Amino acid sequence: MEGGGGGGEFSCRLCGLSTPFSYFGQKPPNTRAVVLLEESYVMKDPFSPDKEKFLVLGSSCSLCAKSVCVGTDCSLFYTRRFCLPCVKERLDQFPQQIQAEVAKKK
Amino acid sequence: MASDRRGGGRCWEWDSPHCRAQMDEIFFRPHDYIQAGSGEHKDFWAFFERFQRFKAKKEMSGSKDSKGRASSEGKPPKKAGGVDLGLPKEYDARYRINISVYTKDVEEKVLSSKHGHATSGSGKQEIADCRLALLHFLDFSQKQSFSKLAKLRREQKSLPIFQYRDKIVNLVKGHPVVVVAGDTGCGKSTQVPQYLLNSGFTNIACTQPRRIACISLAKRVSFESLNQYGSKVGYQIRFETTRTLATKLLFLTEGLLLRQIQQDHSLGQYQVLIVDEVHERHLHCDFLLGVLRSLTGLRPDLRLVLMSATINIKLFSEYFNNAPVLQVPGRLFPIQVIYQPIPAEEQSSKSEKLDPRPYLRVLQGIDQRYPAEERGDLLLFLSGVAEISTVLDACQIYATHTNRWIVLPLHSTLSLAQQDKVFDIPPPGVRKCIICTNIAETSVTIDGVRFVVDSGKVKEMSFDPKAKMQRLQEFWISRASSEQRKGRAGRTGPGVCYRLYSESDYDAFAPYPVPEIHRVALDSLVLQMKSMGLGDPRSFVFIDPPPAASIQTAVTYLKEQGALDARAELTPIGTLLAQLPVDVVIGKMLVLGSLFNLVEPVLTVAAALSVQSPFLRSAQHNPDCTTARQPLQSNQGDPFTLLNTFNAWVQVKGERGGGSRKWCRRRGLEEQRLYEMTNLRRQFKELLRSHELLEDEATSATTEQRSQRRDRLTERRRLHQLKRQHDLQEGGRRKVLKLGEGGEDLAGSSGSEEESSAGRGKKKEKDGAGESVDIQEVKFKLRHNVHELQEVANASQDLSSRQQCLLKLLLCRGLYPQLAAPDEHNATRKESEQIFHTRNKQGVVIHPTSVFASDPEVLHVPELERSEFGAEKGQSSRHQLLAFVTLLETNKPYVSNCVRVPALQALLLVANSVDSNADCTRMVVDGWLELCLSDGDGALRILSSALTLRGEWERLLQAQLSKHRAPRRELEKLGENLVRYLLYTEVSYSLCRLTALQTQNLYIGPQPDSALEGAPILNSLFPGVKAEPDQVKGGLRVTSFFTYNCLSDSKDLYSECLRTFWTCPHCDLHMPFTPLERMHHEATCRPGGEKQEDELESEKPVSSSTSSLARVYHCDLCGKDLTLTSTEILKHKRQHAVQQ
Ligand SMILES: [Zn+2]
Ligand SMILES: [Zn+2]
C-alpha cells in the first residue's frame, strides 16, 4: 500500500485543525531508512530549517476511518491509529497505561 | 525482548567515541534522515543519554511491580465491544510510535566487518538500544513540532477576528475598498493578511507606520503561515529587505510604498494593499490614502483594505465613497477607571519642575491595596523626558525603601539597550514601574501591565511657520489617546487606570489627536507631490486637508531653496531632492558636495544629520564619557564632531571589529546610530551615482589579489551563516531584572574598564550577552567593505584647513536660510547666557549638546580687534554666523547641530537677497542683516568677486545637474577661488540686525526714470541676466539675488560724486569710475590667459545684440558721437588713455 504524492488541505474531523499537507502515504520523500507505520498526512516540518524534515499531521482511524490529527486530544497510536471516540468505546481492550491516560483526560 | 535485557544499556560504553562512531555508521550516514555531525545528531546523543538514564532508573525502581501488574492485568480482556482489536497484551511504549527505521542491510555489513576484530560485546544489543532511542527521539521531535502547530492554530482560532474570517474575505472580493476596524488585541494586523493570502490573493502589500513593526509582523506572520524558513512572507524597510520572487505578502513602511508609487504610478506589482493603523494619522499615511484614493479609479482590480482602531471610522469610509466597514470587537479585560485629579497645591506651573507626589501616591496605593504576590506591572504616562526623570528619581527612592518596585524609564532618546529593558521580567513579589512618554501608547506594547497612570499630558511637535521653527509643546491628550492609554491595563487581565485629571477634564478633551498633517512643515510633502506630478497641492483631495497657508509656506520655502521655480514647477535640483529620503537642506548639501572633491565627508555629514544623534544624553553628565569624547569634538561645529566620530569609529571597526561596541560604550555613543549612518551614507552615494552626480569608482576589486578575494568570500560565507543562525533563534529569552536595577546609569557604566584589553573584553562581552553574536556587527560586515570605509574615513579625517573651509561653506549653503547671528553683547555675557537671533526668531540659544554651548568664545570677535585703536565700533573682519540644522522650541528656542562660518563671505556667497547702497558700503542681506564696510574699495572688490564666484558656481552646478559633468579643472579652480575668498578676505565691517523701523524704510522704492539708464550697463555686466529696475525695492536688479542701489540712503545712480579714481589691476587702466562701472569693468577685463573658450563664446550673443545695449556716446577727447555699448565705451576711452 505505498500511497504517495498528494497535497491538499488536511483537516481533523474532531478538532478542526486544518493545514495544507504535501504528501500522503507511508514513505515521505527523502527520509531514507525512516518509514511510517500508517498512511499519514505529512508536511514539511515548518519549525525546522531543514527542508527534508517532515511532520506527520494525522491519518485515518483504523476503526472508523475518520481523518484525525495526531494530537493527543483527538487520537492515539497503539500499533495502529485510533481516534479517541473509538478508543473510549473499546477502552477495556487497551492496556492499563492507556486506560489511565484516557481517564485523566476526562 | 525481556530476555534481551542484560541489565539495560549501561553495560556497553555509550560514551566511548568508538562505539558511537559505529552507531553513526548504521543510523546516521551522509544521506540519512539525520546525518552525523548535524545539530540534530548532537541532539540525538544528548537525548540518548537521558533516555538510557531514564530507562535504568525505571528498571531499578519499578521493574518488578509494573511488570507484574502488566502481566496479570494484561490477561485476555472481556471482549465486551464484540470485536477483538488484537492488541498486544503486554504494554510497550514502542507500540505508541508510528515510525520505524529499517537499517538491516547496513547492520549486517557493520556487524560482519566487526567480527574480525571484535572489541566489545555483541553489537546487536547496542544496535537495538540505539534504534529504540532513535525511535523515541523521532517521536519526540514529531510531538514537539505538532504541539507547536496545534498551539498556533488554537491561538489563531481564539482571536476575536477569527469569526470574521470569511466575512472579511468576501467583503474584499466584492468591494474595491474595505475598512476593518478593531481594537488592540483583536488580531487584525497578523490575521487579515493571512486570510487574504489563504483565500487565493497574492502580491499583497501591508504598510506599517513603523519599521520595527514591519520586521516583527513579517516574522510573526511567516511563522503563523508555517513559512518561517521560506520567503513567502517578507518585509522591506529602508535598508533591509527579505523580499524575493517567492514573496506573496510584503510588510513595508508607508514611506517606502510612496517611493514605489513614485517609480510605478499604478503599483502594478500589487493585487491587494493593506494600509494598517490608518487612525494614527501620520503625515505619510494621510498622503498615501490620498494617492491610493485616486489609484482606485485607475485600477479597478486593485483591492484596498484600511485597518484602523475603532476611532473615527466614518471618516475613512466616507473618504472612500462609503466603503463597507467591518467592526471587530477587541479583546480587552474590564478596566476600572479612577479619577484622581492633582490638587492645586501640587500642580506645577510651566517653568517649575513637576511635583512627583501625586504619582508616588499611586504607587503607595497599589502597595496597600494589592498583595505583592498578585503580579501586574505599572505603566506611567508622562509628557516628556524631563518629567520622566523627575518622577523617576522620586519613585526610585520609594523603590529602594520598599523593595517592591523596579523603576524603568522609556523614551526614544534612551539607548536601545535601555529601551529593551522594559521587556525584562521582575523577580517575584516585585513590580515593574515603567515611566514613559506616549511611545508606549501605540508603538511599544509591554505585556503584563495591570496598572496605568495617565498624566493626561503629551508633548507634541508643531511647526510655527512665522518663526520657521518647530515647537515641542505640552498639551492635554485627546479622549482617543486617553482610552488608548487606559487599554494598556487590560491586555492580559482585568486592570486599573488612574487618571490624574477629573472626569470633566476628560469630557473637555478633544475627541481625536490633531493629525500630523496639521502640525508639521509640509516642505517634503509638497516636494514629493510635485515630483509625483500631482498638480497643485492645494487642490489635492486629502482626507483632512491641511491649511492652505501651510502649503503656501512650503511652496515659498521650496522656491527659496531653489527646488521650485517661480511657476512652482520642479527645478532640476528639485527633481533630485524629491528622490532623496531626507530634508531638503540635507539633500542640497549632498548635491553641492558632489560638485567638489568633498563627496565622502559630505556623505558622512549628511547621513549623520539625518539620524538621531549617536551621543547619548544620559552620558553627558558622566565625566569619563566627556573625557573620552573630547578628542572627537571640533569647535568648527557639530557636523564636524559627528564626522570625526564616524571616522574614528570606522577605524576602530577596521582594527578590532566587534571591539567597537566597547569603544562606543566608553564614549556614551549609541552604536546603532553609527550603523544607520553607514547604511544611509551608502544609500546617498548610490542615489548620487544613479543620477550621474558621482563617477563610478574604479572598483578596488580589480586590484585585489585573488587570495584576498577568496578570503573575503570565505569570510562572507561565515558571516551569512552567523546571520542565519541569529535569524533562526526565536527572539531571545527575557532576562530577570534585579532589584535596584534601572535608572539611567547604563551608558558608560563600563567606561572604567581598560580599553587596552580589547581582545579579552570582547570575549567577556560575548559571555555577558549569552553567547549571542553581535548581529549588528555581522550585518555591517556583510553590507559594507570595512577597508573601503576605512580609506574613505582616512581621506576625510585629515581634511586640510582649506578643505574644511570649503566643507563649511557647502554645509552653510545647504542649510541656508537656517542662519543665526550672535547677539552684539554676547562677549560680555556669561557662557550660559549667549543669545542668537535668526531672521524670524529673536533670542534663540544654543542647545546644550552643541560644541558652541560649552565653547562660545570661538564665536566672539577677538578681543584685540574690538579694542583696536581707531577701529570703529563693531567693526571687525571676524564676524561669524551659525548655520544650524534644527530650531526647536521646548522650554526655550534651541538651535542644534551648528557650524560656524565667516559672516560677510558666507552671506554674499549664499544669500538669496543682497541689497546695496550706491557705493556698496552698506549691504542688507535677506532684509534683516546689515553689513557696513568702511573701506569703499574693499567693499566693491568683495562684492564683485562674490558675484563672479556665484555666477561660476551656479553655472557649474547647473551643468552637473543637466548631466554634462563640469570639467574637473574648472571645478578645482572654483573650489580654490571659493576657499581663497573665504580665508583671505580681510576687510573690516560691522554686522547688525536691522531694527523694525529700519526694515520699514529700507528701500527707496521704484524710481520713475533715472534708474533705467543703468540697465544696459548692468546687462553686459552679467551676460544673459537682464538687469532691470527693481519694481519693488527700487534700484537695479543685477542678478537674481543682488539689487544695486535700492537702499533708501542711496545716492543717485550716476551721480558724479561717486566716481573715484581707480586702477584696474588687470589692464592698469586708471580713471574715475562709478561703483557700477568699476564692477562692470572688472567683470569684463580679466587677465587674457584666464579667459576660457566657452566664456568667450558665451559673450558672443551679448555683442551680437549690441543694438539694444548700445547708446549714443559723445567722446570728449576725440569729439565724436559714437553708438557703443558700455564695454565699448570703456575700451574706447582706454585707447585714448594708452595714446596719451
Ligand atoms: Zn484533531
Ligand atoms: Zn475512530
UniProtKB/TrEMBL annotation, chain A:
Segments traversing the membrane: none
Matching InterPro entries: CDPF1, CDPF1_dom
Positions of the Cysteine-rich DPF motif domain: 10-102
Family per similarity comment: Belongs to the CDPF1 family.
Name of the molecule in the record: Cysteine-rich DPF motif domain-containing protein 1
UniProt source species: Denticeps clupeoides (denticle herring)
Lineage: Eukaryota, Metazoa, Chordata, Craniata, Vertebrata
Gene: CDPF1
From TrEMBL, chain B:
Chain segments annotated as transmembrane: none
Pfam families noted in UniProt: DEAD, HA2_C, Helicase_C, OB_NTP_bind, WHD_HA2, zf-C2H2_DHX34
PROSITE patterns: HELICASE_ATP_BIND_1, HELICASE_CTER
SUPFAM superfamilies found in the cross-reference section: P-loop containing nucleoside triphosphate hydrolases (SSF52540)
Keyword Mitochondrion: no
Organism ancestry: Eukaryota, Metazoa, Chordata, Craniata, Vertebrata
Gene for this chain: DHX34
Domain Helicase C-terminal: 365-533
GO molecular function: ATP binding; helicase activity; hydrolase activity; RNA binding
Residue span, Helicase ATP-binding domain: 169-329
Name of protein: Uncharacterized protein
Tagged with keyword Cytoplasm: no
Keywords: ATP-binding, Helicase, Hydrolase, Nucleotide-binding
Bias kind Basic and acidic residues: ranges: 59-76, 706-716, 724-733
Highest taxon of source: Eukaryota
